[in-house]
UniProtKB/TrEMBL annotation:
This is Crp/Fnr family transcriptional regulator. It comes from the Bacteria. Keywords: DNA-binding, Transcription, Transcription regulation. Residues 149-211 form the HTH crp-type domain.
Amino acid sequence: MMQSLAWMSLFPELEALEESAKKLLTQYARIVEAPIGAIGYREGDHCGGYVLRLKGRSRVYKMSASGREIVLYRVGAGETCVITTTCLLGNSQYPASTIVEADIQDVIVPESIFHKLMIDSPVFRQYVMQNYGALISDLIVLLDEVAFQTLDARLAKWLLDMGNNTIQRTHQQIADELGTAREVISRQLKRLEQKGWLAMGRGVIEIQQRGELLKLANSSQ
């Protein structure tokens, strides 16, 4: 049993919940924690509850039969997990995998309570569906990038989205983010280095021509 709903400050839309809904959360929701490297879900697992992330970050990814990984999205503080929501709404198994990247603390709303709140609480239902819609839109953007943008454009966009000119990532980590092979990323980065747009060190990439990378990122749109 949770003694307080103080965590709800991270989810201001839920502060307008009906008293009956707050009582259910007080009685049945629980806080769980997991360290870096912990596995949240494996593909095919049953989704036992609705996730409200209080702190930390986890990576949601899909693994191919050959072992190649593509990152679908990440769940950080103040966010929920769209695939978990999908599983709960559709009574289906988890179709991806998750791993903790920074120590997490979650509020877990049990499956039965989630369904009761979806029926009885307009505030909770609106919150779930609004977040669900926003996260689905993000997945559509990812699908568009994978299906219609060239890999070099996607790589340029990924580099720019990191926000800093110094990026500490291995080629394998970048390959996992973009859903391709390490060798392919190494070749693409080498070409960009030869053009003078970036410089590479051991586990470090230095962006030198952001403008040129921006042109490349926009070239297939």
